[in-house]
Amino acid sequence: MAILLFFLFAAFAVGSVLGMIISRNQAYSALFLVVAFASLGGLFGLLGAPFMAVVQIIIYAGAIMVLFIFVIMMIHLGEGISAEKKKWTIAAAVFMGIILLAEIVFAVKGAPAVPMAGQEMAGTSPTEIGRLLFTKYLYPFEITSILIIAALVGAVVLIKKREGE
Amino acid sequence: MNSFGAVVPLLVVVGAALIVFLLEAFLKKENKNYLAYLSLLALIGCGILSANAWNGGLTYFDGMLRLDNAALFLTFLFLIAVAFVILIGMKYISLQDANHGEFYGLLLLALSGLMIMVSSTHFIVIFLGLEVLSVSSYSLAGLKRKDDKSSESAVKYFLMGSFASAFLVFGLAILFGTAQALDIPGLVDFFKAGPDNQVLGVVGLGLVLVGFAFKIAIVPFHMWAPDVYEGAPTPVTAFFSIGPKAAGFAVLIRLLAPYWNAGFRSGKLFGFLWALAALTMLAGNLIALRQNNIKRMFAYSSIAYAGYMLIAVLAGDGAGLLFFLTIYMFMSIGAFGSLIALSRKGREYNELGDFAGVGFKYPWIGAIFAVFLLSLAGFPPTAGFLAKFYVFVAAVNQGLTPLVLIAVLASLISVYYYLRIIVYMYMREPEREVSIEMENPALYLVLFLCLYGVLQLGLFPGNVLYLIKQAVAALL
Amino acid sequence: MTDVFWLIPFAPVLSSLVLVVFGSKLSKKWVSVQACGAVFLSFVFALVAFLGSLKISPEEFPIVKTLFPWIGAGSFQAGFSFQFDPLSAVMVLVVTGVGFLIHLYSVGYMAHDKGYTRYFAYLNLFTFAMLILVLASNMVLMFVGWEGVGLCSYLLIGFWFEKPSAAAAGKKAFIVNRIGDMGFILGLLFILVAVGSSEFSAINKAIGQGLFPQALATLIAILLFVGATGKSAQIPLYVWLPDAMEGPTPVSALIHAATMVTAGVYMVARLNLLFAFSGTAADIVALVGALTAVFAATMALTQNDIKRVLAYSTISQLGYMFIGCGVGAYAAGVFHLYTHAFFKSLLFLSAGSVIHALSGQQDMRKMGGLRKYLPRTFPPFLIGAIAISGIPFLSGFFSKDAILTEAFAQGQYFVWALGLTGAVMTAFYMFRLIFLTFYGQERIEHEAKHHLHESPKSMTVPLAILAVFSVIAGYVGLPAVLGEKADLFKRFLEPVIKPGAEGHIGAGTEWLLMLASVAVAAVGIFAAYVFYLQKPGIPHTLVARFPWLYKLLYNKYFVDEIYGAVIVNPLVKGSDWVYGHFDLKVIDGALNASASATGFFGKVLSFVQTGFVKDYALVFLLGAVIFLGVLLF
Predict the structure, then answer these.
(1) What is the pLDDT of residues C196-217, one digit of tens each?
(2) Closest residue in chain C to residue B159, using alpha carbons only
(3) Is residue B108 a contact partner of residue B82, using CB atoms and an 8 Å limit?
(4) Three-state SS across C131-163?
(5) CA distances from residue C306 to B1, B112, C169, C346, C436 in whole angstroms, order as listed
(6) What is the largest CA-CA distance in chain A?
(7) Do B220 and C623 touch (CB under 8 A)?
(8) Which of B373, B382, B375 is nearest to B426 (CA)?
(9) Helices (H), C503-546
(10) A163 — contact with chain B (CB < 8 Å)?
């Protein structure tokens, strides 16, 4: 059953991400991304990380993507810009993507399955995660706040510039 | 000093950035220079606080924050670099119509990213530091409000940077999955123990290195650099040429020097990086030959320089690398500063043709620029010569003679395009009218200090080498 | 007394700095006084140090003065330190002495040039670098001087940059020299790794203790010699020197005849223990020197440009110096360096005086009969020509003879024979030059004749002084047949150059060899006399008879064209085939183009730099895929 669900979610994740990339309509792309996030949430759930699963769906699929879709619909950018097409570059990209995939599959296959020694499933509860974030991972956790500030200001800088034109 | 005391220097920088962002909204246009003074004050404060930790060699937050001498040395280096960039930028920002507050604030945030990166051996922290740096850098590249090239460079940098980050994160995930560790000592122990799943671990390591190769602009992960260097405001370009590069190399030497020592010096990873170093030096210098835009030329030159620095990493020569980075900072900021000196309101002179006859029209700027170019070309007795020389000697000692041969050949090629600028400055009649804004004391101060650095480090490197020795003792 | 030696280099550099900074505010007169005075001051210091050193016992050499520790970390040390010993003494005296005279001469020669200040600033910077080169006590510092003189040479060759040929010549000199420098720096790195120090004393000690495998010594010596062939214009890297004549004539005299080009010889002599220990390397040095001596002399036979004849002659004479070093007669090699500095700078400066008199004309076909117009230029010129031709009792005879005798004594008969062949040609082309310029019918262009005038005093006085030295300088190194102690020069150099196993030949043989030298010189001069004065038709008959030979020589064996064809053309051809749509400039022959050849690679590489992010990502991806592939398989 778990195996079946895994493949289901995985197929959804990969398929919807592909759809997101290929689709010309930005609203469709955004919706595909919602599906992808939801499927990823499912995968996290299957891996025994319920907190991650829920966070994935609530924050990404819920809050962020809703915002995205609002923005897309409000400012209506229309059809995406059709980039100049060079067939051989697309072929090369696909080809190399496949090779990269093959390489990683090969590497993973060669590796024996290692149980998550000492950490098996511990620290997956919200309490446990919270405790870790404010003890062991306090420093990186606080750094993320700097990251967010930088991202916010950066975005504003780039947007404000557009207005100036 | 407790853990919270240890982050105060970082908090000073971040705090100053926030205050700058706030004040930006309230200050009148003619008072914007106060933002620069405030930023400089923060840098000095951060420097004094950091100096207290020298020779402490302590770690905090469960080993996540590591204030060893190597980290502190690099922090000082970054503080000086950012101070220089702020000073050369003050006038430039108003002349080229960019926004003061954002420039200083984002620079300070980028600085905090650099500090975070170099003062940790845990990859979660290093990655977060890298992202802080990157995100600030993307916006810094796009600061010129009405310049399309500037926006273009920001977007390109952002896209390529995200692409590279994806590789980095994926690699870290694989590493964590196989090695159960993300701190460098733990990773090295894992590889030293040599379990069965090492192949996967090495692939993870490879992906991480790809991510860093992007940041330090190693061929073939370098392609963003010329476009971004050209489009970004020149002071920002000066920052790009040293900040991200130095931090990336610091992480690499922290990671790879113990890795080589664990018995992997003859492995495939080593061999591939060897080839990349050779490719980087040759390609960087060869393409630079054909550039007529000086900023692009410097971009390729900095790519080639990454190749030389990679030799230091391959030789496991931490001291040589730090010395090289220190010298490179002075040369590079000096060279970009000289470029800025040759600009006026709304106009920059970046084409080779603009430089014809400049040596006679502006003899001081020309002469100082020439010194930086000679130093970049590696002429003794400027510091640029010693930098390469140290690294080459260390490399030959490690049996990397063929690579040194390539490096010498590559630097031989490089002389040609550096001297080409000098030839234009001194041996050509001016092709077009070049008039520049002369009143820029802060810039001249930086030029003077960089000149002093280049000559001091070329002739009397003793004191700095002594500090570096102390710094490296912590590294290995 | 000798302790002042470390001050020698600093007067010129101070002067140069003053000229750069305040040059525009100084009057021409002060520029001249200041620039010449600085070099004269150096000369005085050098003289004082030299006189002091005569009283010092040989064991005390070298005297080392460390100004400050320079490179002090890691596995090796190198101080910013100078050393003084007889070899450096000879070099600093030549550099400052001849240099001063050439400075003086330049005051007159450059009087009307708008780059007057710039000229002296470069010239003094050069003097400084050259003095660093010869005084350095370690190879790293020597490399500082080595690069410095190269840079100044480049600046001075391209001094008249308005002339495209001058700019091209500067570029060519620079590129060719960089190839040599690569050999130098690699040799230096190997020395550092093998010895752990680049101090000359440490290197010699390591060789003495046998810390070196011989193969390594040979490798290092050959790499360093590659550097020497670049700087001293030997086969195969000599091609830049004739083009370097585009610079002002005093520069040709100082840099491209008397001092900088001897840097390679100096280095080989300085490291004589290394070359002697290797053996193989020394043989290579001798052979390259001998081949260059003859090869360059043949090219000098047919040149019509007065300065180019002298340039090829310089290459040829440098070949003799390397013969001396190669056969183990380092003292003789340095001796020739020292005498050559006088008579070659004399020749160049007199040629400069001729050119000056003819308003810039350098083509000998447009001279002739100048003897009576230039009464103060002709005698020095003649003395120089006699000295270089190897006529007894003038300086060139003693030094050249010392080299050839030693080559014979060492059993290097082939080298000796080449040297002798070169000597005939030397005498021939020098007197060809004299006869074409000063004798025969006047072929001067009307315009030039109108302005024809003898040069000012500041030019002719240095000529007279140099002429005196060209005559007497050889008497410090008399041949061994005149007594064991006759060769003062050699004995003076003994603290640096340990006399090796000398080949022993009888006094009779030595007299015979000397006679042979004199005979070939006489033959050469006589032939020139017959060809160019008595029966001026002969050269034309010969050209008509052997047109291919003449063409070969006149076009300098097409070496420039061959370098172009072998190095440049294949790249251009290949590029045409692969990237036909690129606008490739077809490059005019010449090695000048090697820079364009590397530029071609740049073009191919920037082909992928399209400006599209997706292409960048593609290359990135390719790199990552290959990386993982390498790690996995």
Answers:
(1) 788 888 888 888 887 778 888 8
(2) C613
(3) yes
(4) HHHHHECEHHHHHHHHHHHHHHHHHHHCCCCCC
(5) 80, 67, 17, 14, 10
(6) 57
(7) yes
(8) B373
(9) 507-529, 537-545
(10) no
Q: Going by C-beta distance under 8 Å and a sequence separation of 6 or more, which residues neighbour residue A50?
A: A44, A124
Task: Find out whether B190 and B201 touch, Cβ atoms under 8 Å.
Answer: yes
pLDDT score recorded for residue C577: 41
Give me the percent of chain C exceeding a pLDDT of 70.
90
Identify which has the larger pLDDT, A92 or A81.
A92
- Radius of gyration of chain A, Cα coordinates, nearest whole angstrom: 20
Region of residue C475 (left: phi > 0; alpha: psi -120 to 50; beta: else): alpha
CA distances from residue C111 to A9, C34, C346 in whole angstroms, order as listed? 89, 15, 20
CA separation (Å) from C589 to B47, C563, C568, C570, C603?
Answer: 58, 8, 8, 12, 20
Give exposure, C396-425, as e/b (b: 16+ Cβ within 10 Å).
Answer: bbbbbbbbbbbbbbbebeebbebbbbbbbb
Q: What is the ipTM of this complex?
A: 0.89
State CA A142 to chain mean position distance: 22
Closest CA to B376 of B284, B475, B260: B284
How many CB atoms neighbour CB A117 within 10 A?
Answer: 7
Instruction: Tell me if residue C80 falls in helix, strand or coil.
Output: strand
The torsion angles phi and psi of C517, rounded to 5 degrees, stand at: -60, -50
Question: What are the tens digits of pLDDT across the range C594-630?
Answer: 344 455 545 554 555 556 777 788 888 888 999 888 8
Nearest one of B407, B471, B369 to B69, comparing CA atoms: B471
3-class DSSP state for residue B356?
coil
Q: How far is A26 from chain B (nearest CA, A)?
A: 18
Helices marked H in C197-271 = 200-208, 214-231, 240-243, 249-253, 263-270
Nearest-10 crossing angle of helices C10-22, C28-54: 170
CB B442 within 8 A of CB B87: yes
Q: Do A103 and C614 touch (CB under 8 A)?
A: no
**C630 contacts chain A (CB < 8 A):** no
Taking only the tens place, the pLDDT of each residue in C385-434 is: 999 988 888 888 888 888 888 888 888 889 999 999 999 999 999 998 88
Output the six-digit token pair for B89. 């930028």
Q: Nearest C-alpha of chain C: how many angstroms from B462? A: 7
- Which chain A positions have a beta carbon within 8 Å of C617's beta carbon? 93
| B276 half-sphere exposure, CB direction, 13 A CA radius | 31
**Which two tokens mark B1?**
């000093």
Q: Is the pTM of this model over 0.90?
A: no
Closest by Cα among C105, C104, C154, C98 to C127: C98
User: Inter-axis angle of helices B294-314 and B318-341, to 10 degrees?
Assistant: 170
Name the region of B232 (left: φ>0; alpha: ψ -120 to 50; beta: rest).
Answer: beta
Question: Is the CB of B135 less than 8 angstroms away from the CB of A150?
Answer: yes
Chains near B with 3+ CB pairs less than 8 A apart are A, C
* CB within 8 Å: C632 and A83: no
Average pLDDT, chain C: 82
Q: B408, C182: Cβ pair inside 8 Å? A: yes
Mutate to test the interface with B, among A108, A157, A159, A162 (most CBs of B within 10 A): A157
- Can you tell me the distance from the alpha carbon of B260 to that of B269, in angstroms, rounded to the nearest whole number? 10
For the stretch A37-67, pLDDT in tens is: 999 999 988 888 888 888 888 988 888 888 8
**Residues C287 and C371 sit within 8 Å (Cβ to Cβ):** no
User: Is pLDDT at C449 greater than 90 in this prediction?
Assistant: no
Token pair 């999955």: residue = B177
C305 close to C367: Cβ distance less than 8 angstroms: no
Task: For residue B416, give the nearest of C133, C130, C235, C179 by alpha carbon.
Answer: C179
